[in-house]
Amino acid sequence: MQKYGLDIWADDNFIIEGDKVKVNYASKPSLLEIVDNLRSQDIRGPMLLRFPHLIHKQLDLMHHHFHRAFEELSYRGSFQAVFPLKVNQSPLFVKPLLEYGKRYHYGLEAGSKAELLIAMSHINSNSPILVNGFKDRELIKLAFLSAKMGQDITLTIEGLNELDSIIEVAKTNQGAPLPKIGLRIRLHSSGVGLWAKSGGINSKFGLTSTEILEAVNLMKKHGLIEQFSMIHFHIGSQITQIAPIKKALREAGNIYSDLIKLGALNLSTINLGGGLAVEYSQNSSIHQINYSLKEYANDIVFMLQSIAKAKSVQEPNITIESGRFIAASHAVLVAPVVELFSQDYTKRSLKLKEKNPPLVDELYELYQDINRENAREFLHDSFDHLNSLLTLFDLGYIDLVDRSNSEILVHLIMKKSIKLLKDQNLEELLKLKQHIQEKYLVNFSIFQSMADFWGLKQRFPIMPISKLSHKPTHSANIWDITCDSDGEIDFSEDNPLYLHDVDLESEEYFLAFFLIGAYQEVLGMKHNLFTKPTEATIEIDEKGYQISNITPSDSILEILDDLDYDVKEIEEKLIQYIENSDYIHKDEVEDHIDILKHLMSENGYLKTID
Ligand SMILES: *Cc1c(COP(=O)(O)O)cnc(C)c1O
Fold first, then answer.
1. Do 89 and 234 reside in the same domain of the chain?
2. Minimal CB count within 10 Å: which of 144, 181, 202, 401?
3. Single pTM value for the model
4. Which of 62, 194, 197, 237 to mutate to test the pocket of ligand 1 (most atoms within 8 A of CB)?
5. Does the beta carbon of 327 sit less than 6 angstroms from any atom of ligand 1?
6. What tens digit of pLDDT does each residue of 572-603 get?
7. Residue 375 and residue 424: Cα distance in Å, rounded?
């Protein structure tokens, strides 16, 4: 892996200079100096860094490419992008997004009542709100209220019963501005990849062609056909191939044209949902995406233009609900490595005795004498010996020190043979390599910060933020600090991660996890009660950078309170136990209470340095 695959996934957002990874923007601060700065403010544990300039970049790119394609093809529709709130609802993301998005009349998409309230209270003027997802009458009333406030809101119907409710609510709102209506169509084409369940004939969402015809009739009958302005589809997230997107678009374009001919006079917009993919791969052999944003925009515009021409209807306005593409790159998690395991398998930890069991002596000789010619044979011999030695241990003939020596020696022999035979690419050695990875214990929770790795085995780019001019020598396994064996990112031959040999007694070593700004935050789980990491916003200019919005990770008391424990009671009880303890002297009671209170006021992650 060259430079941790930066040239594949980083899109020039990060670069390696000297031995550090830097944010490739304006004054180009290194991640390490930002992290050192935060730690000098007494911040410990994992840190989620938000970079607003990367939000701006994605918004600019998306609008640039669609407007460019419009110009090149003299397209006569308009372009409108909205952010689907489910991808990231954090105010520390949404507010800067909307602030910058003003220039594009960037809109919001909501899929629940809570999201709709965020949208109604934060939307910029002249920017649309779209409502998808299943809707009850209350949510529909909320949308009618939004329309009365003068907001540009569209209710996208997922099923005919929702249309019935809209018809009912509309009756009580005669004369007032009404929400626009969209229809989510169920396409027979569907997406590919991990997230491909949202589209296709068996999808959870959308109207079949028969239902679409019925919906149009109902809207005509109840005087709502003028509100019908949009058809919508979403074939899934992270669509890595262009073909299914084009296929879906062809289908949607034809439905659009036919609906206009059937009397949907105000139908003017095709909303093609999300799905624009993000390159997460760190390895060129598993490059995921087969199209560029430029190709994506060109293909969409060209196809809709051709269909409109062939069917003699107006070129539709294009609405897009890309979330992952907009949000993923802006957030980076940096977490300290707190320990390296399997370091004990070094020559230093051998405790050979004056007199060792003969097999241990033999292992030592194998280790001494191993060379290119005999490596495979010696390796196999060492495994045999280890098996015998473990049996001897079970039977009580050798002790724990002998056993430890045997394990160390066999590991050393494995490492040596991998080195000696590295050009031979033997299946056996590849397997061995996985055995002797170093385990890097990292102060974060995979469940909290990378839920999609746990749920879907989605990989995110990982790299150290320092020592980058040194060659990383250890094949690495990442362990988080939860007590769950799923809290592990294993070393894989397809996607190898090599990290540095570090002496954590004398230096700090941080890993950065990239592209976690989409979905991960709100999907994050409090497994083992590790809550959101400390967050900060990093604004970079030519002179330097500014840190703002520092939001500390929850304190232990807050975590318990959130679980509905009575924290007052917990505190009082513990203080009482201290006061009543026979082992704590009266003079020391105050000190112990202070220690306890301090501990409960801190966050739940490990403290690597006091
Ligand atoms: C989730 C979702 C999106 C966002 O999809 P991305 O792949 O993140 O761009 C857009 N529209 C709808 C209807 C969704 O459900």
1. yes
2. 202
3. 0.90
4. 237
5. no
6. 999 999 999 999 999 999 999 999 999 999 99
7. 12
Residue 86, ligand 1, Cβ within 6 A: yes
DSSP 329-340: GGEEEEEEEEEE
How remote is the CA of residue 542 from the centroid of ligand 1, in Å?
35
> For residue 103, what is the domain's CATH number?
3.20.20.10
The overall longest dimension of the chain from CA atoms, in Å, is 99
CA distances from 570 to 49, 235, 586, 600 (A): 33, 49, 21, 10
Q: Is residue 156 domain-shared with residue 241, that is, in the same domain?
A: yes
Closest CA to 337 of 475, 440, 245, 481: 440
DSSP structure string for 501-538:
---TTT---EEEE-S--SSHHHH---GGG--PPEEEEE
For 154, 181, 203, 295, the CA distances from 235, given in Å and listed in that order, are 20, 20, 9, 18
> What's the whole-number average pLDDT of the chain?
93
Q: What are the beta bridge partners of residue 335?
A: 511
| Residues listed for the chain | 610
Mean pLDDT of 363-371: 95
Angle at which helices 52-73 and 91-101 cross, to 10°: 40
461 in the same domain as 511: yes
Contact 92, 549 (CB under 8 A): yes
Q: Is residue 346 predicted with pLDDT exceeding 90?
A: no
Please classify residue 351 by burial: count the beta carbons closer than 10 Å to its beta carbon, then call 0-12 exposed, 13-18 middle and 19+ buried.
exposed
3-state secondary structure string across 285-330:
HHCCCCCCHHHHHHHHHHHHHHHHHHCCCCCCEEEECCCHHHHHHH
